[in-house]
Amino acid sequence: MSEATRVKNTGLRGVTVADSAISFIDGEKGVLIYRGYRIEDLADHSSFMETAFLLLFGTLPTGEQLEGFTGQVKGMRQVPPYVLESMRHWPKDARPMDVLQASVPLLAMAEQHSDTMDRDVCLQRSIGLLAQMPTLVAAWHRIRTGQPVLEPDPDLDHAANFLWMLQGKKPDAATAHDLDVCLILHADHTFNASTFAAREVVSTRASLYAGVAAGLGALSGSLHGGANAKVMEMLLKLENEPDVEGWVKKQLSEGDRIMGMGHAIYKTGDPRAVYLKKMGQRLGEKTGGKWASISQRIEQTALAIFAERGKTTILPNVDFNSAPVYYLMGIPTDLMTPVFAVSRVAGWCAHIIEEQFADAQGKPALYRPQAQYVGEYCGLMGCEYSPVNKRE
What we know:
Elements: E1 23-26, E2 31-34, E3 37-38, H1 39-45, H2 48-57, H3 63-75, H4 81-87, H5 96-108, H6 119-144, H7 158-167, H8 173-186, H9 193-202, H10 208-219, H11 227-237, H12 244-253, H13 271-287, H14 291-308, H15 318-328, H16 336-356
């Protein structure tokens, strides 16, 4: 096939694959909306529990509904004992995202599966995953570090309970609130790679658990959710670097990337990054951490270089600013992406349910994109097969 007739490989960017009523992005204006509500309003006034309800059920809850939903989540935080027992036999140096992805099918084994699709059953399983994801992340960290796994505390809200199970001490109200806002900011982001993976898998009528496991696999990559850990590794590398600006200039002059800079969609700024940047500066002042200062120096130098090159749309993204925030909260670097998943599971489940019940009959449209074949071609009859003893 000639180069003129080949279709450019764009990774499906700009290609509409389905309708969705869950979230919306205007990359030119820097707008992110969940179910009609701007992320700024949710971050300022909502809670992660309320936002998760909005994503799953399509509307903001009444006070009674929110109380009932929060109670359900708190009541489902425990994971089956066999899951924790299984974890104790896993290599202690296993990557946390691999552990998390392996744990979700174990949760599925405790459920009675059926080929009959039922929205209410999917919603209940979604609430269960929302409740258990923090428990899985915290339990693995405790197990791998030789500490006892802690019971969930029903008196603590979602974010505070996670920090308690992870660190063994109850966080102050300000830190718990900051993490709750982080969870809101990460809860959904339209058809990103992990959400697309989750929807594609369940379009085959696979289970909700299979879809979430697929989402976790996609999120683990360094070009997606794994980018926040890479940003923190960069910051730690520069902890004692006297010439941060010189390091940035050298990186860019040699054609290397600055992790956390640039986004596939946002061209005028990521609205989530604005909140996280302020949060990082505040936490840095509170704890004496230098990460916000280092981040600022990297950002200013990189943006000046990009401007000189006419690349004014390369800006800090959510990973660039979330990494120091999580670090200052005492969250280990390799748990930053799992914390991302603790939030994003709300969006994945909302998308999975939307995909599974795309019409009144609950018939998902099986995803089946085409590929441009660029391999050997010997005509419609195919290449001539020669026996192995006659091949040179």
